[in-house]
Amino acid sequence: VNRVKELAEHCKGNEQATKQSLIGPLFTLLGYDLTDPRQCVPEYRVDFGKERSAKPIDWAFLQGGHPLFFVEAKEVGRKLTGFDEQLADYFAKAPEAKLGILTNGIQWRFYTDLVHAHVMDKEPFVQWDVLADEQPPMDFLTILQKAEYNGTLLRTYAHRSIQRNLLVGEIARLLEPSSEFTRLVIA
Hints:
Layout lengths: L1 H10 L3 H15 L10 E5 L12 E7 L2 E8 L10 H10 L5 E5 L3 E5 L14 E4 L8 H7 L6 H25 L3 H8 L1
Parallel strand pairs: 3-4
Antiparallel strand pairs: 1-2, 2-3, 4-5, 5-6
Helix pairs in contact: 1-2
């Protein structure tokens, strides 16, 4: 968090600087070796056929030669809306991958395939704004560590996270009556 606060302004408008200074260090901290192509392949490509051009994904993290998860990176300051489609394409081509990450170094979105197998969900199960005054999702980052990574555990975490968010939303709705209800009570 301190590193991002210190360096984010210097990376604005430069995707490579964002990847090297803000995104890569988090994965290094989590135990991944970004310089070992057996663990991490930058600019990873998949053949989507002659009819579609295949833009590479920024990183594919591997185990035993198979993708565990993909990361699509954008430069600091770039809005992430609309960039999840490329990530979803790669996610669909690798059924063993259970995680897709979209980030600009400050905002992080973590996706899986809870709704349909091998189809990345439209909504992330965890969102993290590094510069917001909130605690980092330490329980999730623990699961993301190379030494702890387990696709089944990750999906269980995602499922519980979505259930918890639905419950919190419903409780908030019940505790804050609608304006129509308030008008009715006042009347």
